[in-house]
Amino acid sequence: MIVVMQPGATQEQIQAVIDRVAEFGFQTKLAPGAERMVIGVVGSPLPDTLKEALERLPGVEEVIRVSKRYKLVSREFYPLDTVIQVRDVTIGGNEVVVIAGPCSVENERQIIETARAVKAAGASMLRGGAFKPRTSPYEFRGLGEQGLKLLAKARQETGLPIVTEVLSAQHVDLVAEYADVLQIGARNCQNYLLLEAVGRAKKPVLLKRGMAVQIEEWLLAAEYIVAQGNEQVILCERGIRTFETFTRNTLDLNAVPAVKHLSHLPIIVDPSHGTGRWFMVPAMMLAAVAAGADGLIVEVHPNPDHALSDGAQSLTPENFAAVMSKLAAVARAVGRSLRGVATAEPSLSPAD
Ligand code: PEP
Ligand code: MN
């Protein structure tokens, strides 16, 4: 439910709404707009008596029930953009943020070398899987806690916050001890008990879209997390399964403007899993930012041919660095900037 205040409603009138909601045992979330204040009411089920009580208060223009099945993550409920802070990195603001690193943490040298390289090229965070969901149980499934320790070491060396996957509810506390962002992989997008477990954690969550998950289902998955009290959810489009076999998945860039329209949560794009082919990754990085993504998560490996997972879709550090300056130009063309990469101001001087 949202309470739309009249333009010019006073601070006292706003406070009276907050107090009345609290008397009913519910909480509020304020969205101050340029014209008027919108007050979201958090709770379920919200009784009609509350709606009627709020409608009677001075300064209230309208009380509207959120029409979507997902409530807290909807833009109807919170018309502004949610901005998420991860150490010194802001996601969902004007700056486009790039997260880069290997699919899996393999050994100390590999993760430290990659962390240094992606940082030098302008990446703002380091990715790397320690607990890997693998289609075959016989493939490399990650180093587990040892991998988390190596990520922490890479963070210490470079200052880059780390993003890593949590595979099961029983591992949430362990992974949260090391990670700055908890990644929920595509295969777990609708693992509702895991979503609730990360909803109780005090860390931002990167929620990948499942490979056969519709946008509404994905937002409902995010709702599971936010409903537990964790509002720090970053959505990640990583490609969906279609009839196409040339690419590993079909990167659904439609999801970017769709999610921006439907939800206040930030959305980033993973062109590595979205294509499965490294040579396509740079083009889709640029396209994602042009489409309005708040960031990217990209697989980079110092020696993709020898990667223990996802080498075919991993950029070399050189290829990654090459696309970053183009990405800064695209970000600029759509009115944003790329965190970590300075672009020269276009000069008006005739000498140029
Ligand atoms: C990954 O990020 O390496 C990964 C396993 O991604 P997804 O869950 O999108 O397949
Ligand atoms: Mn991968």
Topology:
Blueprint (H helix, E strand, L loop, with lengths): L1 E4 L5 H13 L3 E6 L4 E6 L5 H8 L4 E5 L19 E3 L2 E3 L3 E7 L6 H13 L4 E3 L17 H14 L3 E4 L6 H7 L2 E4 L7 H9 L4 E4 L6 H13 L5 E5 L17 H8 L4 E3 L1 H5 L5 H10 L4 E5 L17 H17 L3 E2 L14
Parallel strand pairs: 7-8, 7-14, 7-15, 8-9, 9-10, 10-11, 11-12, 12-13, 13-14
Antiparallel strand pairs: 1-3, 1-4, 2-3, 5-6
Bound molecules: phosphoenolpyruvate and manganese (II) ion.
What does this structure look like?
- The protein has 352 residues and is of the alpha/beta class.
- It has eleven helices and 15 strands.
- Helix 10 packs parallel to helix 11 (317-333).
- Bound molecules: phosphoenolpyruvate and manganese (II) ion.
- Residues 103, 273, 299, 309-310 line the site of manganese (II) ion (MN).
Overall geometry = globular
Uncertain spans: none
> What is the mean predicted local confidence, pLDDT?
96
> Could you say which small molecules are bound to this protein?
phosphoenolpyruvate, manganese (II) ion
Structural class: alpha/beta
Round the Cα radius of gyration to an integer and report it.
Answer: 22 Å
Which quaternary structure do these chains form? single chain
Order of helices and strands: EHEEHEEEEHEHEHEHEHEHEHHEHE
The percentage helix is 25-40%
Largest sheet: 8 strands, parallel, barrel
By DSSP, the count of extended strands is: 15
Our count of helices gives: 11
Percentage of β-strand residues: 15-25%
Ends apart, CA distance between termini: 55 Å
Record the strand order, biggest sheet: 7-8-9-10-11-12-13-14
